[in-house]
Write the structure tokens for this entry.
Amino acid sequence: MGKTVLLCGEGVSCLPGGVTGAAELSGVVERLAGEEPPLLWAGAAAADSPRVRDAVRYAALEVNEHLETYFDRREHALETLELARSGCAGAVGGEETARCLYKLIFQLLLLLETNNKMVVAVYHAALDNRVCVYF
């Protein structure tokens, strides 16, 4: 997550002042820079619960879907930033760079949301089964 936030922060700082949404994009990047996704430690007994296994299985499928799109978006953002840095202003404008960064950040937020849903599902399933879970 940190590398993506760093990349987006660098990209936002390269955007010209008149680009639509540059200030909003900068605000989201700053907010993400101070956040870390929650980690969850569950004992072996929690893994024996069918509810926990199902919650993790479905969330893992969703994370995999979001990761595939995330890697595509990241690659496109890197290419766009490289063109913008090399001075090919005619090939890639500030609006296109902002659009790529926005899509990358949105995909990262989807990944974080899925992670949070998984943590909540595992936590509630563990509480229902009276199993220890640590944050």
Remarks:
- The chain is about 75% helix and 5% strand.
- Helices lie at 2-14, 22-33, 44-47, 50-85, 94-128.
